[in-house]
Amino acid sequence: MNKIFFVWIVIGAFSCKEISFKEPQPKGKRSLTEMPQSIRGRYLLIEESGNNKDTLVITRKGYHVTGDSTRGDLGDSLVLKKYKGYYFFNDNENPEWLLRVVKQEANGDLLYLFMDSGEKPFGEYVQELNKEIQIDSFEVKGKKLYQIDPTPRQLLNLIKKGYFKKTMRLTKIK
Questions:
Q1: Burial of 149 (0-12, 13-18, 19+ CB in 10 A)
Q2: How far is Cα 111 from Cα 88, in angstroms, rounded to an integer?
Q3: Confidence class of residue 75 from pLDDT cuts 50, 70 and 90?
Q4: Domain coordinates of the chain in residue numbers?
């Protein structure tokens, strides 16, 4: 399973269910063919607990983690879009798209966000989210999937309302 950034492995170990998307987000916005110059570089991977795990290198065509086989190259499986100051990394996990959002701070650091129920049980999170946007659920190969199909404005509102949680700060190495 191709993962965006190294944390998907860690996140997957702790949360077996995730809200996914029907198409790359935000829908209707153009995909970038290369990583923007402003986010290229080397970043220390620092979790909320303060632990430094490794170094993420963002290049023109994708990313990789030093000392690890984790990598991603922009293309059909990894789609990057920029909208209203956010970078949207979309990973194709057919029949769903998984989404990670990155916000660059003024000092060059990156905040890494994804849809997470946090301390709430997943079912309660889904009920709360369903008040904001329709959630479709279906089963594929014995796994229940939960998908939403927001407009760009709805997607930004979900970020602003805290449905996307900050999981990590990526500190730019100068």
A1: middle
A2: 12
A3: very high
A4: 7-172
